[in-house]
Amino acid sequence: MRFARTTLRTLAVCLVLACCSTALAAANASNLAGKWKGHYGGAVSGHFTLHWKQTGSRLHGSITLSSPKGTYGIGGSVNKGKIKFGAVSVGAKYKGTVRGKSMSGTWTSPQGGGSWSATKTS
Q: pTM here?
């Protein structure tokens, strides 16, 4: 009987922790939807604006680049504070980390690579 109560308590604590961590992950992930502004440097430098929509860990939307100038479709994912996305039509791939209303990382493209950072504006 005593073993059963201890086991039930342990299971209850595990369930609460699992629910809380899932809720925190969902809360952090939901913060990505919206508008982000940033800059990039390296082989090519300039500024960009991201417009994200999010479904779970999947990201999709558009990126407006100053060089090569234009607006391009993007897709990606976020998992445990790590983000990956790409603009297929220009061959650019981005990866990095997200923390609150800021994110940063590195990018690669056929023209080379470098670093990037962005801040959420809305």
A: 0.74
